[in-house]
């Protein structure tokens, strides 16, 4: 309900992921509860979810319904998370604004005269507006960090190849800097929990190219003083 309300105000959601309630009922029957048990998670538009498109803001991808969840979505579900919406991006995702010809302009919930930033702008707007508590964005040159800054959130671009990258819509170019999927939330603890959940044996099993290094619990306490 909150996501719908925020979307009405700032136009940040591109799709609602069907099967959420079925997944929750299935989770309730499982004995082992994952680290993200029952948490609704928003997903950036270009990350593949089974039965949905990954447009990247481009008309050419509108007819391509994905047949499989990306690795990161599979791992989120394995940990009890519930991907429930896909969020808006700028066309081609190389832009610090958040608009495209398919879904239109996303606004900053803190000030509707401003942009939420990009390219994970839909994520920034939805989380800042109170419609999601945890989201997955991606970052090549600031696409998690900029909307996090513009919307007053916390975001993390992990080290290259730390999280499985496959399962995203094709780009019309090859960036020279490695893009990474990463979490966005309102506080650092949520980012740490998400990273701990993602860096699990299921991730390493599904994508053997990811180094099997678990999350370091102490890493967030080893920030150098400014």
Automatic annotation (TrEMBL):
**GO-annotated biological processes:** fatty acid catabolic process
Q: One Pfam match, by short name?
A: Amidase
Highest taxon of the lineage: Eukaryota
Q: Which UniProt keywords apply?
A: Hydrolase
For molecular function, the Gene Ontology terms on record are: amidase activity; fatty acid amide hydrolase activity
Lyase keyword on record: no
State which residue ranges cross the membrane.
none
* Residue ranges occupied by any Amidase domain in the UniProt entry: 5-217
Q: Which family does it belong to?
A: Belongs to the amidase family.
What name has this protein been given in UniProt? VDHAP protein
Q: Species lineage, top-down?
A: Eukaryota, Metazoa, Chordata, Craniata, Vertebrata
């Amino acid at each position: 309900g909150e996501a719908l309300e925020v979307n009405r105000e700032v136009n940040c959601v591109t799709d609602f992921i069907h099967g959420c309630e079925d997944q929750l009922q299935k989770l309730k029957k499982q004995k082992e509860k994952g680290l993200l048990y029952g948490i609704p998670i928003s997903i950036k538009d270009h990350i593949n979810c089974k039965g949905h498109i990954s447009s990247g803001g481009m008309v050419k991808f509108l007819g391509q319904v994905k047949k499989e969840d990306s690795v990161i979505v599979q791992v989120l579900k394995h940990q009890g998370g519930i991907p429930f919406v896909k969020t808006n991006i700028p066309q081609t995702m190389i832009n610090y604004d958040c608009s495209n010809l398919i879904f239109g302009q996303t606004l900053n919930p803190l000030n509707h005269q401003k942009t939420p930033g990009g390219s994970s702008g839909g994520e920034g707007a939805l989380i800042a507006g109170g419609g999601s508590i945890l989201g997955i964005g991606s970052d090549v040159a600031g696409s998690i960090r900029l909307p996090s800054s513009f919307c007053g959130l916390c975001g993390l671009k992990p080290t290259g190849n730390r999280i499985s990258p496959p399962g995203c819509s094709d780009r019309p170019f090859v960036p020279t800097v490695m893009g990474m999927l990463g979490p966005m939330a309102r506080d650092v603890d949520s980012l740490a929990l998400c990273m701990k959940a993602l860096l699990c044996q299921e991730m390493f099993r599904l994508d053997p190219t990811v180094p099997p290094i678990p999350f370091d619990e102490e890493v967030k306490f080893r920030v150098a003083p400014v």
